[in-house]
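Sequence only, no structure available. Ideas?
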Amino acid sequence: MPLHLEKISHRYGPVEALSEVSLDIADGETVALIGPSGCGKSTLLGIAGGLLAPTSGAVNWSGAPPADSLNPFTYVFQDFALLPWRSVADNVGLALEHRPLSAAERRERVASALALTGLTEFAAAYPKQLSGGMRQRVGIARALVVRPAVLLLDEPLSALDAQTRELLMEDLLKIWAREKSTRLYVTHNLEEAARLADRVVVLSRRPGRVREIVPIEVPVRERGRPEHAGLLRAVHDRLWSLIRDEAATADREIQPIAS
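Reply:
I predicted one. Tokens follow.
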């Protein structure tokens, strides 16, 4: 389902977080948001998903969600937020409770989400038995079980170590090749942006504005091939050149004290 952000601006009291951000995301496209700390990435994601009303501007979408979508806009957060007393399957199925589905339909959806995220053999395990990467896979499966039209991801890999992050990036590319949601992905990690996105939107220092949109000219299915490593590295370096000076300034900025 295509998503359209039209002149989104937002203020937190006297602080202007975003200024007239416009962005069109095509059906099935993955767009990453990057920028210096405090540029409004997570604020824009919250506005896109309806968690936060913008000070001005509008969020619109084209067409209708797929017929089997139970929740058109679904989030994946950095915090796994799993219930420790529930099994993997029951954590994934939590999103289906109080939905007008038969028991057989719930089982089918949970089984499909577990298979998509490589968790089938861990269905009966509990969160404390899993690694951080596996717990985040459960969080992703829980988001996918409702078959969202738009998937909103807020730094989902930032709490993981480098090796686990690499594995999860490979898994996400495989998942996205099979499920067709539209995706908006917030990250501080430039490698994630270059590996996972079709386009990378670079926001300026606060108030966040669209500074540049960088397309990734390597098909998603080929991102892991060694022959493309140089091009992806060049994208990484280009992204860093766009945010480096503002990131350094933001790092030394004194934050206002809330009244």
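The longest strand covers residues 15-25.
Hope that gets you unstuck.
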